[in-house]
Amino acid sequence: MKNYASLARFILLATLWGSSFTLIKVSLEGLTPSQLVLSRLFMGALLLIAIASVSKAALPRSAEVWRHYAGAALFGNVIPFLLLSYGEKTTGAGIAGVLIGGTPLLTLTVAALTLPEERATSRKAIGLVAGFVGVVVLIGPWSDRLGSPSGQLACLGAALSYAIGFVYVRKFLSPRGVKPLAGAASQLIAATVIQAAVTPFLEWDTPVLTGRVTISVVALGLLSTGLAYILYFRLINDMGAVTASAVNYVVPVAAVVVGLLVLDEPVTWNLVVGGLVVLIGVGYAENRVKGLRRKHHSLATDESVGARTGSTR
């Protein structure tokens, strides 16, 4: 029964993260990117604060730790959320989800360049080259059916920002032993404060809160941002960090399917082929088959838990 429950959570998490790209697209019908990002961060932070309070997960008190959470929030939430929102104004939800699927590969690259213990092996190099080829095929510079190149590059920039954020967390926060739920709540609190500070300087229009837009924003904040964190950490406890992180292979598929069903977005050959090549490159670079056999890998010692997760879509 426990295995079925974990599988259900796994599928729900992939669906929530995959749906986030469509929810962003719909929310932009009534909100500017900055308004959207502030709304989802605020609601996600409120939910995690409530859960952390009930579970008595104490937030950090050190000013230095909060400074590092601000850094993690900048690269892991504020910048990628804004880039995704701006990018999806001119490109599809499905392709945004597939491009974000390349985050683990970019994380391996950033880690190899910045962390002494992460050497650039031939396996990672081959996976990176394959992933780059997949991105080129995916973007399809010969066609504009999947949106504008600028929008696609913004989404790819979001993936790179996620990668930098994950490496930042590993280097400066993971060794501090903050409980995952408290850490997630702290990061969203910091992200909300940063976004609130920059929003007045960004594009601002009078919100048009239709029923469709309101539902999308609330679902994005409470479900795809807040609840998704909780599900992910529960999966880590039940299945192990490496197995739980395999959800990243399902998220791009969910993003394409939801975009097709809700927004009637096109599913072109280069979207499918490019996405598959990216995921294969990620799997090869991570040595995923071997990794999935590590049944009792802990969160603290996982090679790159943050690198393999997309816990902030």
What would you say this structure looks like, in words?
With 313 residues, the protein is mostly helical. The protein has one domain. The protein has helices at residues 2-27, 33-54, 63-87, 93-100, 103-114, 122-139, 149-172, 180-198, 211-239, 241-245, 251-263, 269-286, 288-291, 305-308.
Give the helix proportion (percent range). Answer: over 70%
Question: What ranges have pLDDT less than 50 throughout 5 or more consecutive residues?
Answer: 295-310
Mean pLDDT across all residues, rounded? Answer: 85
| Biggest sheet record | none
What is the H-and-E element order? Answer: HHHHHHHHHHHHHH
Shape category: globular
Strand content: under 5%
**How many domains, as an integer?**
1
The count of β-strands is 0
Describe the structure concisely.
With 313 residues, this protein is mostly helical.
